[in-house]
Amino acid sequence: MMINFIWISLITISVIYSVISCNISDLSNSIFSGVNDTVNIVIGLIGPMCFWSGMMNILKSTSFIDRFGKSIKPAIRRIFPGINEKNNSYKNIVLNITSNMLRIRKCSNSFRFEGNGRNEKREW
Hints:
The chain is mainly α. The protein contains 6 helices and no strands.
């Protein structure tokens, strides 16, 4: 809530200052150049994000996750005692660890959120 107030205040102050100093054209030019930079960044990131998300979904449906999960089972048992290996939360934990090891940060966030939703039900 506070961050919204800060952003609205900064935008309002910059618009009022540009009107007072008669620099409205500079304000509009900076807005459009910022939007242009943002679109270029998003277009540049969308391809790798789609590729790695697809790769993680393919790994999710293969036996690689099961084999990798068995290899790190002792570590997961110590971190999450009492979790069942057949539970979906276990698979999401293994996927999260795999994506973190591959340094795919955005994919690991989606698996972390899926795992958190299932962990709240305490299906362990």
